[in-house]
Amino acid sequence: MGVYSSAGDWYWWLLLPVFLGSATCVFLFSGLSSFLDRWDLPAAVFPFNIIIILYLLCTGPEHPYFPHHSIKPPGALEPNATELIVIRGIPLGVGQIFACGDLGPSLLILGAVFLYSPLLAVHALLGSAVGTLTGLSMAVRHESLYSGLSGFNGALGCMAVGGFFIFSLWTHLFAIASAFFSAYADIALSNLMGTVGLPACSWAATLVATLMLLLTGSLAAYRIPTGQVRAPERNLQLRKKNNNNTEFP
């Protein structure tokens, strides 16, 4: 809400919808968790995505108390071509998960992820790179590439699948595929929702990762039950300790 607000800095009245929206997210998370638990699926960030879209729909760019910026579709054409240096957008794609568009704090966020799990940090960087490459292939606005907005859904999709499956070559490739699907879905949803001035938030990564977790077949044996997910390195250690049994301990 703070990122999209156009009421200026230190607009204290914004705390009211922030408090109410945050509290509502808790109730939605509880309800969705009970509903999705029958398929062993996480509620993930469905509550956040639902609340932020409802808030933006209820207010609008011209709202007298809670105005917000109108969102442009990422596929909108730009009149001037500029030199395209998008490497900087890859770490920013990780930072944009937390609405951070500055390089220094984004590197700190990536460093914190690395301290927790090097494998998860690798998936985050790979996913962001895939998202940026996807944005290039679809000729999205340069601003989306430079700021990391093209990469953060890919990073989320890659991290989610990489974290919910025991690490192996095939699950690693599966996570990268999830990053591609998330990035393309984000462009499609952003173009669709941008026509009415709304952001796609992280709907793409959330929906794609949820579908990926419903996978059946040989890769399903590597799937970790939602309540037992830990750092990827720890998951791998537990699987090896369990003598490569198909049932997670």
From TrEMBL:
Q: Which UniProt keywords apply?
A: Cell membrane, Membrane, Transmembrane, Transmembrane helix
Q: Does the keyword Ubl conjugation apply?
A: no
Protein name as it appears in the record: Urea transporter
Q: Catalytic activity annotated for this protein?
A: urea(in) = urea(out)
User: What InterPro entries does UniProt report for this protein, alphabetically?
Assistant: Ammonium/urea_transptr (IPR029020), Urea_transporter (IPR004937)
Q: Which organism is it from?
A: Astatotilapia calliptera
Which family is this protein grouped under? Belongs to the urea transporter family.
**Molecular function in Gene Ontology:** urea transmembrane transporter activity
- Membrane-topology annotation of the record: Multi-pass membrane protein
Where in the cell does this protein reside? Cell membrane
Signal peptide residues on this chain, from the entry's feature table: none
A GO-annotated cellular component: plasma membrane
Transmembrane domains' residue ranges? 12-32, 39-57, 113-140, 152-183, 203-224
